[in-house]
């Protein structure tokens, strides 16, 4: 169950920020020729290894970042957006539409317990269960392929917080990028990415026992046979959970994951 404020899942990504920082080098990446996608994505991993990302290096702080003082109207706007997301205000979507494109990138984010970390704003939206706000940010260019310091992509985080509308949006964007890249394996690779615990989004959906998420990811081609770091797969996890409970969700998930793809 998510906390009231969310984003405490980033306790392993702690830094010691003293300023509100906005890094904008990817703010319009989706609107550039599709070949650039390869370059940008390549910055966050090499080969088939999807390991942790150093956000400051990823966003090229020296050439494209901007540190704003407290008199900056942009900083104030983005702080307002973050606070609206954290408080789960209905104004968050309005603010995201208004100036969300200016706030893309990495933000120094202070959690309620005063820990700080650098985190992209769309991750903040997802872990505060604001999938509609995350979708607005995706439309404005937020990167769906970046991973955090413990290997979680937006798809992992959206699944962890049951943000089905964001999951669907991410999957649609993967489809679009795969077509543009003329790479039939692109979407499959992204669907089956693992975090540092070896978990795929499908594995997380099974953990959450959310049949709607499991069915969505399964129908989109997620592989239930990928084993996590400690050995079991999403399909095996589903069997284990069903063995401990007779819930309708557990039964439905096992039945679904045992089906053969046509």
Tell me about this structure.
The chain has 262 residues and is mostly helical. The chain folds into two domains: 8-182, Serine Threonine Protein Phosphatase 5, Tetratricopeptide repeat, CATH 1.25.40; 197-262, Ankyrin repeat-containing domain (Serine Threonine Protein Phosphatase 5, Tetratricopeptide repeat, Alpha Horseshoe). Helix content is 47%, strand content 7%. The chain contains 14 helices and five strands. The chain has helices at 35-42, 55-58, 61-64, 73-86, 91-99, 121-127, 131-139, 154-160, 164-181, 186-191, 201-208, 211-219, 234-244, 248-257, and strands at 14-15, 21-23, 65-67, 106-110, 116-120. The strands form two sheets. It has a three-stranded antiparallel beta sheet with strand order 1-5-4. A two-stranded antiparallel sheet has the order 2-3. A hairpin with a 5-residue loop joins strand 4 (106-110) and strand 5. Helix 8 (154-160) runs parallel beside helix 11. The two termini are 35 Å apart.
CATH class of the largest domain: Mainly Alpha
Specify the CATH architecture of the largest domain. Alpha Horseshoe
Tell me the β content.
Answer: 5-15%
Q: Could you tell me the number of beta strands?
A: 5
CATH homology group of the largest domain: Ankyrin repeat-containing domain
SS-based class = mainly alpha
Global shape? globular
Give the termini distance in whole angstroms: 35 Å
What is the share of helical residues?
Answer: 40-55%
SSE succession? EEHHHEHHEEHHHHHHHHH
Kindly give the count of domains.
2
* Major sheet attributes: 3 strands, antiparallel
Radius of gyration: 18 Å
Please mark out the parts with pLDDT under 50 across 5 or more consecutive residues, or reply none: 1-5, 14-71
Number of helices: 14
Mean pLDDT: 77
CATH fold category name of the largest domain: Serine Threonine Protein Phosphatase 5, Tetratricopeptide repeat
| Strands side by side in the biggest sheet | 1-5-4
Oligomer: single chain
Keywords: ANK repeat, Membrane, Repeat, Transmembrane, Transmembrane helix
Transmembrane segments: 20-43
InterPro entries: Ankyrin_rpt, Ankyrin_rpt-contain_sf
ANK repeats: 197-229
């Amino acid at each position: 169950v998510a906390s009231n404020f969310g984003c405490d899942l980033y306790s392993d990504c702690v830094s010691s920020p003293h300023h509100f920082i906005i890094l904008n080098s990817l703010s319009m990446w989706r609107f550039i020729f599709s070949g650039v996608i390869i370059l940008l994505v390549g910055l966050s991993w090499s080969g088939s290894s999807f390991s942790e990302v150093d956000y400051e290096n990823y966003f090229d702080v020296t050439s494209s970042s901007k540190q704003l003082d407290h008199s900056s109207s942009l900083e104030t706007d983005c702080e307002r957006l973050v606070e609206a997301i954290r408080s789960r205000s209905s104004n968050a979507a309005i603010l995201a539409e208004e100036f969300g494109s200016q706030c893309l990138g990495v933000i120094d984010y202070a959690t309620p317990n005063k820990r700080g970390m650098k985190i992209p704003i769309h991750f903040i939206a997802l872990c505060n269960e604001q999938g509609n706000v995350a979708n607005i940010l995706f439309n404005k260019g937020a990167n769906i392929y970046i991973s955090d310091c413990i290997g979680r992509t937006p798809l992992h985080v959206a699944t962890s917080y049951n943000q089905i509308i964001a999951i669907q949006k991410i999957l649609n964007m993967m489809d679009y990028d795969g077509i543009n890249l003329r790479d039939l394996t692109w979407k499959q690779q992204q669907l089956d990415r693992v975090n540092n615990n070896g978990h795929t989004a499908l594995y997380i959906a099974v953990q959450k026992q959310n049949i709607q998420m499991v069915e969505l990811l399964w129908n989109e081609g997620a592989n239930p046979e990928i084993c996590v770091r400690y050995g079991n797969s999403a399909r095996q996890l589903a069997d284990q959970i069903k063995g401990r409970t007779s819930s309708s969700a557990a039964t439905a998930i096992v039945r679904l994951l045992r089906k053969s793809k046509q």
